[in-house]
Write a structure and sequence with these properties.
The complex is a heterodimer of chains A (267) and B (389). Chain A is an all-alpha fold and 267 residues long. Chain A has twelve helices and no strands. Chain B has 389 residues and is of the alpha+beta class. The longest helix of chain B has 18 residues, at 165-182. The chains are: A mainly alpha (267), B alpha+beta (389). The complex binds adenosine-5'-triphosphate (ATP) and magnesium ion.
Chain lengths: 267, 389
């Protein structure tokens, strides 16, 4: 009897949370008709926003992979002075308001700063450009990949690493042949999360991108822009697309991981 | 290759695990490192393998100081306590790992592994993954993975602690076989004294970060030098005695353990350490005790004390019997066929004078080589103290 009550409570509370997710989505998906929706995707500005979003977010994933996996390895396997500080620093972007990130980047890269002036003197303009968007998104979304890969590295049995070096492997060989394959799922998870976060990034991007339609306007910026100017149809169309992308990529990823787990990760 | 540890110390967070540890293992020896859980056995082998850095001290292999060499260049093969197989590689790739690191040609690897896999009966499993293997199979894969790299020294960290008795016997026979063929210097780590006695050429007992005694199994069993070693090898009768009198062959000892309602006298074989009036610990081997009914008078010229059976536990072909002797619990191991008593029955406890021998090491603190029996300075006399005669 007591168990029944407890389980009822659990189900109810979870139910409330599910509603919280489902109702807004429902509102979004019923706000427009399919034919109107199809029409929206003929607009070249919307198509370009989609392309820009994909270009930048996928580049962010690649950059996070190249820069973040080494950082994750460092944090997971090495001991060094100042590790705590580095660790906190890497986590900081997750809890920093994206607008603040954007502001900081603006100050660093803008024409008024020394660094910005130095760069634009060499023909590199990071403000109001795609590289600037990529930087902003990387700042905000990169830590997800680091966190997830780090956890994956840490979950590997230390003796397995030791066995590899005892068998004569160099650290790099061990990293390539043992740690990377074993941390693979964690790294993939980090990539998916980073991608989803980069795709949905708004605050930081809006500060450095400057919403130049067709040039620096990402999907999220376009949603905001259209909504503000009263073009709800366009706004809704892009929003729906964003959700469909995130949902399916998460779903595909999760089922893939579940299928793989038994053969590789357990011992 | 012989192995030598010199003054190895290691602590974790200020807590010492190994303290000024010295150890010499001769080339070709099968050496057993015996010690309780958490005693630092794994730490010690991983120091030898180069996977843990000692705070101070050096490791010599074949006379060469390898302390600064990375693990891969020490030619030390280590089989991990938890096997540490690569979970993402199948049996073949696990075993081939070390050979691939050495850049052997695939054809050569395949040829080499075929031989080993057939010999160990793992041929059928070569494409299975570690999580699909039984404990014994994992053990074999881990051992093979190390052996194919042809190490000069083999370290086995509790290789059988998670196997059933039959598999254990099988694998230990294989190990002995391998050792006989390769004459590979081996350090075998275990907390199981039975394993130690059946496998070791010599046994060293690790306690509180030090080697408390290094000896052949026979010597260690019949002449433990400290209370810890005695109890660890299963001799749990430690008698606190005072030498009352001695003659050429025998000594009369007054036993006065705590809790004893009345001190009593025992006759023991005389050892040079016995000096009249001295206090010393004696150990009494439980398997050297006979029991007889109280009404059966019998005199074997030995010790005879009266007691009451307090407890009896079943251990396969023997009973372990606890006998209460006026407040002192004495432990005896009696073959089942000779046991016809009831619990709480009064019995005579008989044992010969040579069933008792002195614990002549200073307790626990000194490294083994610097320990001696009390009052004896010349090495011959140390020898006398040790012989069973
Ligand atoms: N990396 C580590 N960090 C901190 N403490 C450690 C570490 N490795 C071992 N210890 C501690 O050192 C002590 C000895 O550990 P070790 O694993 O060497 O013992 P052991 O004799 O192999 O024990 P067991 O029989 O349980 O395997 C333990 O108290 C353990 O908690
Ligand atoms: Mg251990």
């Amino acid at each position: 009897m007591r168990n029944l009550l407890f389980n009822l409570m659990i189900s109810m509370l979870s139910g409330i949370f599910i509603c919280l997710i489902l109702f807004p989505l429902f509102a979004l998906f019923t706000a427009t008709s399919w034919s109107e929706l199809a029409g929206q995707f003929k607009s070249p500005l919307i198509v370009s926003a989609i392309i820009i979003s994909f270009q930048t977010s996928l580049t962010v994933v690649l950059a996070a992979l190249v820069l973040g996996v080494p950082m994750a390895y460092l944090l997971a396997t090495k001991k060094f002075p100042g590790k705590e500080i580095l660790d906190t620093l890497v986590d900081l972007p997750i809890c920093m308001p994206p607008l603040v990130v954007g502001l900081a980047l603006l100050l660093l890269l803008g024409g008024e700063s020394k660094f910005g002036a130095f760069l634009s003197g060499r023909g590199v303009d990071l403000i109001f450009s795609r590289p600037g968007i990529i930087m902003a998104q990387l700042f905000v979304a990169g830590p997800f990949l680091i966190k997830s890969s780090r956890q994956a590295f840490e979950a590997i049995n230390e003796n397995v690493t030791k066995a590899s070096s005892s068998l004569g492997a160099s650290e790099f060989h061990t990293f390539r042949k043992v740690l990377l394959p074993l941390a693979r799922n964690g790294i993939y998870a980090g990539m998916v999360m980073t991608w989803a976060r980069a795709l949905g990034e708004f605050g930081a991007t809006s500060m450095v991108a400057g919403c130049i339609p067709g040039k620096t306007e990402t999907m999220t910026l376009a949603i905001f822009g259209y909504a503000m100017s009263g073009e709800m149809g366009s706004s809704i169309a892009i929003a729906m697309l964003l959700i469909v992308f995130s949902f399916t990529s998460l779903l595909v990823f999760k089922s893939r991981i579940r299928k793989q787990l038994p053969s590789t990760q357990r011992i | 290759m012989d192995i030598a540890l010199r003054q190895i110390s290691k602590s974790y967070d200020g807590r010492p695990v190994l303290e000024n540890l010295d150890l010499d293992v001769a080339a070709g020896e099968f050496h057993v490192l015996l010690g309780p859980s958490g005693g630092g056995k794994t730490t010690m082998v991983s120091v030898i393998a180069g996977l843990t850095k000692a705070d101070i001290g050096s490791v010599l292999i074949g006379g060469r100081d390898v302390s600064l060499l990375p693990p891969g260049r020490r030619k030390v093969g280590l089989v991990f306590q938890d096997y540490a197989l690569f979970p993402h590689l199948d049996v073949f790739d696990n075993i081939a790992y070390g050979l691939r690191v050495r850049k052997l040609r695939e054809a050569k690897i395949a040829q080499k592994l075929k031989y080993y896999l057939e010999k160990t009966g793992l041929e059928k499993e070569k494409h299975t993954f570690p999580h699909q293997l039984s404990g014994g199979q994992k053990q074999r894969v881990a051992l093979l993975r190390t052996l194919v790299t042809e190490p000069e020294v083999l370290l086995l960290d509790e290789p059988m602690s998670s196997l059933d008795v039959l598999t254990r016997e099988q694998i230990s026979a294989e190990l002995v076989n391998i050792h006989r063929k390769t004459e590979l210097t081996t350090i075998y780590v275990t907390h199981n004294q039975a394993e130690a006695f059946s496998l070791g050429d010599r046994i060293s007992v690790l306690h509180n970060g030090k080697i408390e005694q290094i000896e052949t199994p026979e010597e260690l069993f019949y002449h433990p030098k400290t209370e810890f070693v005695a109890r660890f090898v299963g001799i749990n009768n430690i008698l606190k005695a005072k030498v009352a009198a001695t003659n050429r062959y025998e000594a009369v000892m007054e036993i006065n353990n705590e809790g004893l309602s009345q001190a009593f006298m025992l006759r023991a074989k005389n050892y040079p350490v016995f000096k009249k009036g001295e206090e010393i610990n004696l150990c009494l081997h439980p398997e050297k005790i006979d029991l007889s009914k109280k009404n059966e008078a019998r005199d074997n010229g030995g010790n005879r004390i009266c007691g009451k059976i307090a407890e009896r536990t079943n251990h396969g072909n023997v009973f372990k019997v606890t006998i209460d002797i006026g407040g002192l619990a004495l432990h005896a191991v009696i073959p089942k066929s000779l046991f016809n008593f009831q619990v709480y029955e009064d019995v005579w406890v008989d044992f010969a004078p040579d069933a008792l021998h002195p614990l002549c090491g200073r307790r626990c603190r000194e490294p083994e080589f610097s320990r001696k029996c009390h009052n004896i300075s010349s090495p011959e006399l140390v020898g006398v103290c040790r012989t069973d005669a």
